[in-house]
Known about the structure:
- By secondary structure, the protein is an alpha/beta fold.
- It has helices at 2-23, 58-69, 89-101, 105-112, 162-165, 199-212, 225-236, 254-263, 282-292, 294-301, 303-312, 314-327, 347-358, 363-373, 376-379, 406-412, 429-432, 434-453, and strands at 49-52, 117-122, 125-132, 141-148, 174-181, 218-222, 241-246, 392-396, 416-421.
- It has a nine-stranded mixed beta sheet with strand order 1-2-3-5-4-6-7-8-9, with helices on both faces.
- β4, α5 (162-165) and β5 (174-181) form a beta-alpha-beta unit.
- 2-acetamido-2-deoxy-beta-D-glucopyranose (NAG) binds at residues 104, 106-107.
- Pfam families: EHN.
Amino acid sequence: MIKLLILLLIAVVAFLPIYLLYLKSPPPLPEVDLNAWWGHGEPKEDTAIKPYKIKFTESVVKDLKDRLKSRRPFTPPLEGVAFEYGFNTNTLDSWATYWLEKYNFTERENFLNQYPQYKTNIQGLNIHFIRVTPKVPAGKQLVPMLLLHGWPGSVREFYEAIPHLTAVSEDRDFVLELIIPSLPGYGHSEASVRPGLNPLSIAVIFRNLMQRLGFQKYYIQGGDWGSLITSNMATLFPKEVLGYHTNLIFLLTPTVTFFELLGSIYPPLVVDRQLADRMYPQSEVYSFMLEESGYMHIQATKPDTVGISLLDSPSGLMAYILEKFSTWTRKEHRSKVDGGLEFRFTKDQLIDNLMMYWTTRSITTSMRLYSECFNKKYMALKMDEIPTKVPTWTIQGKNELGYLPPWLIKLKYPNLVKDNPIDDGGHFLALELPQVFSEDVLNAVQAFRQWHKSSSIKTDL
Ligand SMILES: *[C@@H]1O[C@H](CO)[C@@H](O)[C@H](O)[C@H]1NC(C)=O
């Protein structure tokens, strides 16, 4: 009897990979409403594109300073504790003082306004975006690319990368034109007034934004939520999206989970030996996930409750957001009293990003995206299990929150042109290593253009 059971078990284990890889059919492509209305009132089209500038008004700055000044003394950290219990309050105190006394609001406002920004209404929401159109010398082609940030980031993450990305080079026959929007409910983009604006619906919004700007075909790039949203754009609109570049590749599917587990028996089954420590031992990966994903559970269930105090307290918002810039850049930063925040970032850079949330009072609406994604309705779409033929390129930082080997990436993106597992860099790659990030994006677009030249369906971009 036992022998029979063991035989049966072996048969199942042997058959499961075959089923998962070759027999299981993908879920259907969901039907999307290209005109869903997320704003107040009756649908009413307004196609105007209006120039926009970020303003730190006197009253907003005065109110912020008053709040920072009147902050109550923080609870001191435990003896010998750095960031292990959360943001170190001694460090927070010095950062809050910097925000109050040293952060030059006028200078930073000018800095943030250095690139042209606009707003246009898409499906009822005023969407904010940066658009950088470089001058193109004769013989070079202007090629549009959409860049999308995530949480708790903003368009600010791309500022240092923009000059690299838009540079004219002898090595390339194209120059990138960049469209960098704020996600709906983030920073200067308006939030939905009703439930349901999930990463699929946001993909529709940004596809419509590109159409509004006259781009029928374009390249896309994203990290964090931006990665998921641009992935959905590639899945939904493969005729429009010419190439997909991401610095966060994450696939929540039974097949990927199965092989990740299988690899824990013997990692070389699933991953190159020299990259195995990015996936294994799985116990380490899971305990890190448990220790660091509490915020996700809160935001997926009660974003409005936690949002109340974050909206009210600049030091609270600072701790909540900057803790992520510490830990997601390097895990080891948890044991540093200063959180390693200035290892690759400056105070001004990180406070600029906070200002995107503070001045627009968008922290609650930004966190709601977790609730709109981690629910039965969105999960039932199984977007990660629907393959897309859009050529894809991944760059995976050594300190990113996860790693996937190319052959598993290909289950969703069969036309993976390249995976670039770099030996540096964390979650906020564009901000941390702007040059490395930009070069990789440009190499990807170069390769995508080559790919299109040799494919049957030609494109002139
Ligand atoms: C802040 O920046 C503005 C504009 O760059 C400059 O004129 C001003 O002197 C700065 N203020 C301080 C206190 O440094």
